[in-house]
Amino acid sequence: xxxxxxxxNSTINKSSDKxxxxxxxxxxxxxxxxxxxxxxxxxxxxxxxxxxxxxxPIRMGGCRDVTKTxxxxxxxxxRSCHDKRHPK
Length: 88
Prior knowledge:
alpha+beta; 4 strands; about 30% helix; about 15% strand
């Protein structure tokens, strides 16, 4: 099975049912948040491209547990704010 490296140092096995479910859940949640709040960064207010960010970081178990990919644990951030939260 092929694993794809994801941002935030996580790996999701895209061919597994759990991986597919998690990816779909993230896509649906991101679309919901964009519909509710628009394409505006929830940190700096910049309008444009936004990424789904988990408030509880992945390295702390934030999205490995599917129950953590929720509206309450996620927010939309521009790329620069997202990169600041997750330095490499």
